[in-house]
């Protein structure tokens, strides 16, 4: 009976929240806190807890292109929020009454984490170590949600303004009827993320039964991401190195090919077409798995900009082939569907949007490049070459002449690796715009119109959803 009630709440909160008119859905009468260890474990294993944030911020970035007129993926056919993002519209992104899937689902998952964090230690049917471990896993999961959200709803970290910049509501209660919250500052949110990860580390396992559960290297990986977003590159490197001590394993894309006119299972091994590209916990690159909210995310829903395609062609030795460009994208036509003059993103694999070895490798490489010096540049080159050996057919190793060259090449590799995956490019644009040498103006076009977004513009900050503002108009927000 207990689990029936808690699961009724979870289903109600996670799947009906799109129609709510509250900050988050209010718990129904009869809500009951579980009393058994396995109940809490089941909460963390619930399907919605294996999801990550929606992909919509991609449409702001310089990777995305939409069609015109009646072409496939044309601008006019998109939902209003996508058109608002792509055209860099001022003001709200979502229309009145339309829920923001990142905000709603992230806070629903945070409430599940809070339920575990605040109550697991009181159960009597498990050891202290098991209870602490589960609590720590929930703390990592909560930190992940806030780390994603701070990249969406706040400006890039700036030490000079972080103590006054608007961040997010920090919710630590499992009582969704408790509306006593405020919008914490960016500094406070990062402090909470760090606290969760630091507190979780001692009780996390060195290795978990599956990668839907975080081990110690996941906490180190998220600390590395957090410090990278803050521009604290020495600390980012320290934590990235700890994460990579466990594994630098990568899938070798040079061993894979694309089946013509196939969709699901499109990417297969060359030597065994019955063996598809590994997903989820079957992929050794993945160290913490969260899937897109829709099965295949942005696949066949967006075109690659010419600028992105040019990046894939850059720095290839004669005879070399970037398998990411070959496998993840299709030009002009596919299985009878025409999109002449465009290149569409369609790997048809279920991506991991949480944490993988590629991110940690590229974080470490970026930090080594920024540090400079002979030994650091050599290590940056080793990691850069390691990744490209697994991505590029006939790859030729490079060395870096100086820190500037190394940094540019590593950042370009990061863009290639994470195109159309979650919010990687969106967050990178925001953080790199803080450096004058990497500032850029983004240009989008469709239907004969052209729109531009200058660096450090407030339109990079997704506003609080109108549904939330309607219920809590006192929450401060950015003018955009």
Describe this structure in words.
The chain has helices at residues 2-15, 37-45, 80-86, 101-119, 128-153, 186-200, 216-230, 233-244, 306-313, 323-328, 357-371, 374-389, 403-417, 424-432, 466-471; strands at 64-65, 166-169, 183-185, 256-258, 267-269, 286-288, 303-304, 321-322, 329-334, 337-345, 355-356, 392-393, 442-446, 449-453. The protein is built from 15 helices and 14 strands. The model is unreliable at 1-30 (pLDDT under 50). With 480 residues, the chain is of the alpha+beta class. The protein has one domain (2-250, 354-471): Serine Threonine Protein Phosphatase 5, Tetratricopeptide repeat. A hairpin with a 2-residue loop joins strand 9 and strand 10. The strands form 7 sheets. A two-stranded antiparallel ribbon has the order 1-7. The protein has a two-stranded antiparallel sheet with strand order 2-3.
CA-based gyration radius:
22 Å
Strand content: 5-15%
CATH class: Mainly Alpha
Low-confidence stretches: 1-30
Query: What coarse outline follows from CA principal-axis ratios?
Result: globular
CATH-assigned fold name: Serine Threonine Protein Phosphatase 5, Tetratricopeptide repeat
Please give the domain count: 1
Largest sheet descriptor: 2 strands, antiparallel
* Adjacency order of strands in the biggest sheet: 1-7
Distance between the termini: 48 Å
Report the helical percentage. Answer: 40-55%
InterPro entries: SusD-like_N, SusD_RagB_dom, TPR-like_helical_dom_sf, TPR_rpt
Pfam families: SusD-like_3, SusD_RagB
Protein name: RagB/SusD family nutrient uptake outer membrane protein
Keywords: Cell outer membrane, Membrane, Signal
